[in-house]
Amino acid sequence: MRRYLVTGTAGFIGYHLAERLLGRGDQVVGVDNINDYYDVRLKHARLERLSRHANHRFEKVDLADRAALTRVFEEARPEVVVNLAAQAGVRYSLTNPHAYVQSNLVGFVNVLEACRHHAVEHLVYASSSSVYGANTTTPFSVHDNVDHPLSLYAASKKANELMAHTYSHLYRLPTTGLRFFTVYGPWGRPDMAMFLFTKAILEGRPIDVFNNGDMQRDFTYIDDIVEGVVRTADHVATPNPGWSGAAPDPGTSNAPYRLYNIGNNSPVQLMRLIGLIESELGMEARKNFLPMQPGDVPATYADVDALVEDVGFKPSTPLEVGVRRFVAWYREYHGV
Question: Which of 22, 226, 257, 271 has the fewest CB within 10 Å, making it most exposed?
Fold first, then answer.
């Protein structure tokens, strides 16, 4: 039994990760501020399911509240911390930038400080495929330079990676950053395409299709994401003995610091996703074709070689399977 502290357990990935850890016998203290970025009823429904586990305890705490977070660390004494709490969303960052500073920057440095002062053995944290920004060489590799973000959200995630490296270097705190690629599945976020499309089609409303449908995404099923998180959390970050400051590798370090992509390694055209949802629903979508949105990118594609090499795992759930499971959950949860 291991003691985990998981931030963002009312969220999509945090909920699923907590379920997985509790299922294998670990103790989990969950932290979330339950903000209203999307319908809090879904967040409370996830937490209600977690409350059925004897080894789960929930603390409603904002990461930006340093005193409250410190108290949680003092009481929980976690061996491993997985930081999944963040202000998410590329488009939302265009209109609400301060939310990202408080949650993703102030909150993250509070997590780093708490890990440093409470002898945490390993910090795993969510980064994002959005850090690749203006990069056009695909598949995206953790060994690529990522200094050209296209949104404040992406910049905040890149900043998390830099901040984590500093703590790995100065305090030898092992840190692992995970760049997630377009996560979907049951209990998913209502602001994501799959949820938005399914809801609109069932309600007979048109769906917004950006860049006139000429978009590719490396859709990654939630079970694959969780498997990647668990495996990397169990594989404590170590220094790369071959790392050189003369030719620095961005994905590793001479400090205990690692970065991994977790993506399906199989980009899919947006129109194909829409077709699969239409097929599962037995309904055709009314499509509102729109130009590319500021801060967005036309394609994402994950190189997962580092993940395979270090922890022996490669996401593989076919989109057809994942969409079927998501639509089935959506119908059951909403009584459609």
Answer: 271
